[in-house]
Amino acid sequence: MKLSAEHYIFFASRAYLAREQETAMGKIMVRCPQTGRSIETGMEMDAERFQRMPVFFSRAYCSHCRIYHEWFAAHAWVEETRDRQRIAVA
Fold first, then answer.
1. Average pLDDT score over residue span 22-46
2. How far separated are the first and last CA of the chain, in Å rounded?
3. Is 57:74 a contact under the CB 8 Å cutoff?
4. Cα 26 → chain centroid
5. Confidence check: pLDDT of 31 > 70
6. Under 8 Å CB-to-CB from 12, ≥6 apart: which residues?
7. What's the pLDDT tens digit per position in 61-78?
8. If you average pLDDT over residues 50-71, what whole number do you get?
9. In what order do the strands lie in the sheet with 77-80?
10. How would you classify the pairing of strands 26-31 and 77-80?
11. Kind of pairing between the strands at 67-72 and 26-31
C-alpha cells in the first residue's frame, strides 16, 4: 500500500503527535513494601484512564523479594514509557 503525500504530512503533524501522546500507554507501578523499590504490576494503561478507574485491589509479583504483594490502585502510579517521552519532546 502506497501512502499519498497528504498521509505523510498528517503523520508528521502536531495534531497526530498530540493524539498519539494522549493515547500512549504506561506501566502501572507500585512500591515494594519491603525494599521500597518500584515494581511493575504487569498492567499497562494511559495515566488519564487510570486516574478515572474505580479503586481496585490486585496482586503483583515482586522480583526484588520474590513474593507477591497485594496493592490498591490508590497506591499505584503510571510510569510513562520512553516512547511517550520522546513524543512529548517532539
1. 90
2. 27
3. no
4. 1
5. yes
6. none
7. 999 999 999 999 999 999
8. 91
9. 38-45, 26-31, 77-80
10. antiparallel
11. unpaired
Beta bridge partners of 68: 61
Q: Which three cell numbers stand for residue 60?
A: 503483583
Strands (E), the chain: 26-31, 38-45, 57-62, 67-72, 77-80
How far is the C-alpha of 55 from the C-alpha of 68, rounded, in Å? 19
Q: 65 CB contacts (<8 Å, ≥6 apart)?
A: 32, 34, 35
* Residue 32 grid cell: 515494594
pLDDT tens for 78-87 read 998 765 443 4
Query: Where do we find the cell 526484588?
Result: 64
Q: Are 25 and 46 in contact (CB under 8 A)?
A: yes
pLDDT of residue 89: 36
Element (H, E) at 26: strand 26-31
